[in-house]
Amino acid sequence: MVATSTPDAGALLPVLYEHDSSGVIASGWGAIPLLILSSACGLALVTLADAMSRSGRTEGQALLWIGIALIVAPTAWRVTTSSATRGERILLVVLVGLALYAIKVVHDPFAFTFADEFVHQHNANEILRTGSLFNGNSILPITPLYPGLEALTAGVASTTGMTTFGAGLIVIAASRVIMMLAIYFLIESLSSSTRAGAIGALFYAAGPNFLFFSAQFSYESLALPLSASVLFMLVAMRSSEDARTSFGWGALALLTVPAVVVTHHVSAYILTLALVGTSGVSVFLSSYRTRHPLQSEKPLPPDAEVVPPPVTAPQSQLVGDRTFGDGLGGTDRTALIAAWRGATGTRSREDAFAYLSWLDRPTRFADEIIDTTLVRTSWRKAVSLRGRSPLPLATYTTTCVALWLVVVANTTTGYLSPVLSNAVDLTLKAATRDAPTRALFTSDAGAVSPRWERAVVIVSVLVLVMWLLLGLRALWKRLFRDAMLVVLTASALLYLATLPLRVVPAAWESAIRASSFLFVGVALLAAQARPRARPRRFAWVRLALVGFSATIMISGGVIAGWPTNLRLASPYRVKAEGTAIDPPGAAAARWSTQAIGTFNRIGAEQSDARLLMVYGPQEAIAGVFPAIDEVLHTPTIESWQPDLLRQLRLRYLMVDNRTNSSDVLAGYFFAPVGSRGAAERPPEVRDKFEHVSWADRVFDSGTIVLYDIHRLGNEQPPP
User: HSE of 348 in the Cβ direction (CA atoms, 13 Å)?
Assistant: First the structure.
């Protein structure tokens, strides 16, 4: 029975619904001010750690982990509590996303320093310079064909007068907010739980790419949030009871899909696969349910038919900050069922759950109901959902992708095919031990992670597997009632299958990049596992488990996804006698603008080429295709090398004496004295162009030498 102080049962449910849906406005700020302070303290510690690292001190690593823990753990604790409102959870999810993004910003506050960032900054600069799209890019020619990120950045820069660096930071910050909100709303809608939405968003932030890779100025960093938004829009379109609302979500999805298509090729392809897969599973489930209808989908007898929701009470009837438990007293679940019975006159508990699902937002009354019961979909809503198939959106997306591929980006297949085929080929050879494997916990530069870091990564993987198994167990009974649940659960399991690929040299990068997409399913599945402490006085154990899991997973993700020597800032500028000095590659790139002009074709090391392209701007050529790396690194000039330089029509060749100039991650900074990156190349490699008639030295900084090789084009190749 409901206590005598309970409001009229017929108006109780909608009153509480209206009250709780107002979120933080109606319920105050909760713990948000304290968690903002905690996140600010964590960010301050990380900033201090970066400053120490730039000065050559190594003690900052501990401050980095403490700072991350101050950002993640308190928020994970708070969003798991039953007293947190929906609005508070939304704000906290956004807070964590922006605070973790700020870690990347303070890592490199002066300029973009990630390899892909130089490529896209060049594209944005070219859009500003020419006023047109689809300009050239000598390092990654495919990127100008997907100009969504750069066009938006150029628009912000031209409107505000900012540089493309400042505008890019704003665009990626907005993308981070979109991503956190999209993950939250997607999981909340599929789970019917605000708590699950918040926990899922935090689990997604614990992915190996979230802290650095997904925060860089790159086209995936914008396209992935837009793709996640499309998935949520599809769910919202199918679950909306009102036809106009459903149409609005569908129209918004139709507008967002082209934005994904013109921004990033892989994101567009994976979104297409997700939508096509959802459509296929939806058709299968509909066919299966026609032959084997669920009990909740069968028409109910007249005396138990689901009735329309009672008329919502006027806003003036809301009582201050009364929450669900305060208004009802006693056990929330029992009181809510009793209130529903009073409103409808039925005595079926299962019909009460169907009624809550029909209202669409059951856990905005109380998350405890979802924690202890299985929400069933009413037969009316099931029929409504079947009328909103994902197939039209999947067809539309496939058409957009195909048109862009054929009309604009027809070289994309040639760009992606060798990467994928090589990864598959070497994976099969590694499985049969016909190809070498990649050493775990060892960077490309040879740096080995300490034992405690390896232990953290292993524990984080075990914790993740535990949450996925618990989530799969909790979700299993209702997994096949929604096609999107099936697809995202499959992506979570596929993520586990990609973990062994990290030992394959040609496949590890693809596996890491794929984790950004697959981790959406991981977040959904892990959010379903909400362990409950019994008796209730031990509820803090559950909260501590969530906080610990989120912290250990994000720490393991950072360790697995980023080399030890690059997690903290490296010295980008140094000061001598009051003058700021740029690193050698950046100084040579800026010199080239004044001395030799712009848009010269220059062969260079990987890091130098990116600096030349942005700060020259020059048309820099680097890498193994074509084999510029081999030309620069062999001790003698081989017979085929002059022919290659002629074919590439190079005017200049830049020789860098630093070994770390070949490193696309660390080559932009000053290397600490005595470090592996500070080593120099052998004299025969460094000086070999001094002994040929077709190379004239025009610049020599002691570290970098620039040769004019235009006479090579006039010389006849040797017989």
Answer: 16
